[in-house]
Amino acid sequence: MIRDYFSDVEKKLEEIKWLIKKKMISFNLVSEEMGIIKGKIVFVNNYALDFRELVSVGHTDYRFHFMNRTNSVIMRWDSAPHHKEITTFPFHLHTPEGVMACDKVNLIEVIDIVKALMSKSGNERK
């Protein structure tokens, strides 16, 4: 399961390689049931996605921080257990407007969201 997910992440990155300027990613297989992916992707427009995701059969813990070229937050998805008022606790999304409910996400889903946001705003270069 973990190896398959790591492979799926690598395929997703290959799929959007035209959008990536630089990437530093480490895949750590802790056991057959647990893995950690962490790193940073800098896109061609100098926006960046900094992330850490722990993946296991029974537990998910993550932080996906998407920021603009001045390192200001655009979106940050995380699972830190600090916004108990959010209906999707502990999963939530930070934006410049505040914190909001957000279903659990993974790195592949976040990459797709970032790609769509960049395409929508015309920030990508093909």
Short summary of the structure?
The chain is of the alpha+beta class.
Describe the protein in words:
- The chain contains 2 helices and 7 strands; from the N terminus they run H-E-E-E-E-E-E-E-H.
- Strand 1 (20-31) and strand 2 (34-43) form a beta hairpin.
- The longest helix has 14 residues, at 2-15.
- It has a 7-stranded antiparallel sheet, with helices on one face.
- The model has no long low-confidence stretch (mean pLDDT 92).
- The protein is of the alpha+beta class.
Topology (elements, then pairings):
Elements: H1 2-15, E1 20-31, E2 34-43, E3 48-56, E4 60-67, E5 73-78, E6 92-95, E7 98-101, H2 107-120
Antiparallel strand pairs: 1-2, 2-3, 3-4, 4-5, 5-6, 6-7
